[in-house]
Structures are given as C-alpha cells and as structure tokens.
Design goal:
single chain; 468 residues; alpha/beta; FAD/NAD(P)-binding domain; Enolase-like, domain 1; 3 domains; seven-stranded mixed β-sheet; five-stranded parallel β-sheet
C-alpha cells in the first residue's frame, strides 16, 4: 500500500499478534502492531505460559532435590528462596520479550504503543492509556487483525481483590508462598498452580464442579492425575461447586457444595474458572462484525463478517491456546499475501498441561471416538514398566492410544506422566499424516527412552505389549 496506509494493522502483540506481524513482515507486507502494554508478547509471555512454566520448573527441581537421597545424593538442608525464584522467572520473561521486540524490528514491523480500536473497517484509532484515553493516532489499513486476547474470568460473588481473592495474574507475583490455597477450577491453569504451590509447601485444596479434573481430557487420564495429586497431598474435590467466600482477617472462609461440601479457611483463593475475550472498547460496533457470548464470530479463515477484518486467538471461539493463536496468525497473513493456505486443523491441536505429572493429548478421547461412531480399540502402557522412567525417578502415569478398528487409524493419543508435553509431538505428527497403529508399531523407537512407552502402547492396542 502507498502513502500512510498499511497492508496489515494488528491490534495486540500476544502469540497471535506478534507471530502474525513477523510473518507479515517476512512476506513484505507493510505492517503495524498496536500494543496497550509497554512490552510485546501478551498474556502468554508476561502473565501466562512462560512465567507459569518457569515456576513449575523451579517446583520440579525442588521436588527432585528433596528426593535426591534416592539417587545416592546427600544435599543437606534445602530451602526455598522465593525472591530468587521470582527474579529468575522475570529474567526469563524479560529476555524473551526483548527477543520478540527485536524480531519485530528485524522484519520492519512498526510497533505502536496504545489502545487500538476500530473506527470502521479500515481505520484503527490509537488511544493513550486505555479505551477512554485521548486519540494519539489514526492508522489506515487494507486489512486489520484483531488479536486482543483474553483476561481471567471472575466469580461475581467473589471478585478479584489481588490480595485474598486472586486471578492467575495475581498468583504469579505473590511475595511469599501461601500457607494454604484453595483453587477454584481444575482446568489447565488450576491444576498447574495447585501443583506449583503444593510442591513449594502450601496446603492446597483443588475444587472442580465437573466430575473430573481437566474436563477436556480422557477420563482415565483425569483419574490418574487425581490419584497422583492426592498422593502428593492435594485435597482434590471433584463434583464440588464454589458456594461463596468471605474475606476475613488473615484469610478467606470458603463455602463448598456437592460431593466435597464443607467450609474451608485458607490464606488465599485462586479463581481459575476460565478466561473471557477482550472485545469491549475495540470498536466492533463501528463495523459489521458479529459476536456470540462475547466472542468474535469468524469463518474457517478467521475472517469476520466485515471483509478484510480478521480475529485470531482468544477473542474468537477456537481453543484458548498460544500455539493455536500463532497458527491462526500465520494463516491469516499468508492468505492476505496471496499464498496458498489451508484452514487451521483444530482437531490436531495438542493440549498440554504442565503440572506434576504432566498431561498431554491430541485427537479424540475414547469417549469422543465412540460418540463419533468409531469401533474403538485402545492400548495403554504404564511408565511404571518403562526402564527410562525408572531411571529418571518418575513412574506415575501412562500412554493411551485410541485407534479405529476398521482402518487402524490412530484417532487420539493421551499421556499422563513425566515429559508428556514433549512426547505428544510424535503423536501430533502421526495424526497429521493419518498414521495407523500398525505403522507406529513398526516405527523403531530408541532404547531406553520415555518415547518407548508410546511404542508399547501401540503394541498394547493389539493385545501384545512386549514389556507389560
């Protein structure tokens, strides 16, 4: 585009926005990215994926050191320096944020600080300080990408106060490990923080309204995670609803209803019941864009009802995952540039939860496959029977493969255990290539590795696991 116009203006620089901007720059599109914060990377980098996993890694290391004597290592007294843990976490975040900024500059993406909002389909207004701030600039664009992300969802009867009633943002920056913590919601965010703070010594109660932890995961996987959590001292209460909370001196009284009903007194409460899209104050009403339950409605190309305006990441009703947002961003800008593209294959999205033990899956669960009408065969292999898992000292969990009896196609792979989030990549490739159980059986896996458990689970689907 000539003059002052842009080929693409992207509102938001999270893993959807900044990845889209970099790819647009690589394709030679004149691109600007608008970010309300003073840094790029969005929630994932600054208040989500990266800082959470940094704390989880510290917790894993601490837990391993506590069990060092099992490896013949005597380390003496071990203590937690929470200040240094938080400092390390922030150093990682800052380094990665600097890298994102450098990549945007490398590909000649203009970074515009402020609150971005549409004023019609081809104009983006930049405001200072927020949606009510003064206008500082207007950008004209041939295409606009909305990548404004999401924020933690509140419980109306227990709004966040940042001190006793916490969001996932607040819990990342605590100045000390709480003596006790009640986590409301056992999705990925809830189980990860329950795992972190239990490993660091908190007394943790984990509450989930549905019958299982990680409700989107396979039932057997969820049951194994609940067993492992209870064995490490987490009070798991499924089929239990939050009924109210009262903040008092020194803590919070929490009322619970259902199978785990009762009243708790805890130092802090983490509300982890999901997230809601950031769509208010971004000018949707000045366009033809439609919303449903707060989410921007899009087609298979992430294009809204307003031609040339796209929405990616948590603002549309696709999976709330950084890697999904990134894939959507790449698809959108490549299509804008005239490249030959395909829609994002959401059915092949890996789900990863980084608690201890980890949980990862791709494809259909056993229940989903049966509901879709498949004649299902499954194979499971426990890490307890894995030589490498014994060597590593992490034998909780298993690999489960869900296959189709008619054509032998692998429909889903589910892993709970050490390094599950790394092992799932093989399964993703197999599903992408429509691989079969037999092909996986005939794929040589190195010994001794954790990945052998995937191989053995394939054997188990035919009833002939070698080592179990």
């Amino acid at each position: 585009m000539t003059g002052n116009g842009y080929d693409v203006v992207i509102i938001g620089s999270g893993p959807g926005g900044y990845v889209a901007a970099i790819r647009a720059g690589q394709l030679g599109l004149r691109t600007a990215v608008i970010e309300k914060d003073a840094f790029q990377g969005g929630t994932c980098l600054h208040r989500g994926c990266i800082p959470t996993k940094a704390l989880l890694e510290n917790a894993h290391r601490y837990r391993d050191i506590l069990h060092a004597s099992e490896f013949g290592l005597e380390v003496g007294d071990v203590s937690v320096d929470w200040r240094k843990i938080q400092s390390r976490k922030q150093k990682i975040v800052d380094q990665l944020a600097g890298g994102v900024k450098g990549l945007l500059r490398k590909w000649k993406v203009e970074i515009v600080e402020g609150w971005g909002a549409l004023d019609g389909p081809r104009t983006v207004v930049v405001r200072e300080g927020g949606p009510e701030g003064g206008e500082s600039r207007r950008l004209e664009a041939r295409n606009v990408v909305i990548a404004t992300g999401s924020v933690p969802r509140e419980i109306a009867s227990a709004p966040f106060d940042g001190e006793r009633i916490l969001s996932s943002d607040h819990v990342l920056t605590l100045d000390a490990v709480p003596e006790s913590l009640c986590v409301i919601g056992a999705g990925a965010v809830g189980v990860e923080f329950a795992s972190v703070y239990r490993d660091f010594g908190s007394r943790v109660t984990l509450v989930e309204a549905l019958p299982q932890l990680l409700p989107i995961e396979d039932e057997e996987v969820a049951a194994e995670l609940a067993r492992a959590f209870r064995s490490k001292g987490i009070d798991v209460r499924a089929s239990t609803s939050f009924a109210g909370a009262e903040v008092v001196e020194g803590g919070v009284h929490v009322d619970l209803e259902g199978d785990g009903e009762g009243q708790l007194f805890v130092e802090r409460v983490l509300v982890a019941i999901g997230r809601e899209p950031v769509t208010d104050g971004i000018g949707l009403e000045t366009t033809k864009i439609e919303t449903e339950r707060g989410y921007v409605k899009v087609d298979e190309w992430c294009e809204t009802a307003e031609p040339g305006v796209h929405a990616i990441g948590d603002v549309n009703p696709t999976p709330w995952l950084a890697h999904v947002a990134s894939m959507e961003g790449v698809m959108v800008v490549e299509r804008i540039a005239g490249e030959d593209v395909r829609p994002v294959p959401y059915g092949e999205t890996p789900n990863c939860t980084y608690c201890d033990p980890e949980v990862a899956s791709v494809g259909m669960s056993e229940r989903q496959a049966k509901e879709e009408g498949y004649q299902v065969r499954t194979g499971k292999f426990p890490f307890l029977a894995s030589g490498r898992a014994k060597i590593d000292g992490h034998t909780d969990g298993f690999v489960k493969i869900v296959g189709d009896q008619a054509y032998d196609e692998i429909l889903g792979v589910h892993i709970v255990g050490y390094k599950a989030t790394e092992l799932i990549a093989e399964a993703g490739a197999v599903l992408r290539l429509e691989g079969t159980v037999e092909e996986l059986i005939h794929t040589i896996h190195a010994h001794p590795t954790l990945a052998e458990a995937v191989h053995e689970a394939a054997h188990a689907a035919y009833g002939d696991a070698i080592h179990y």
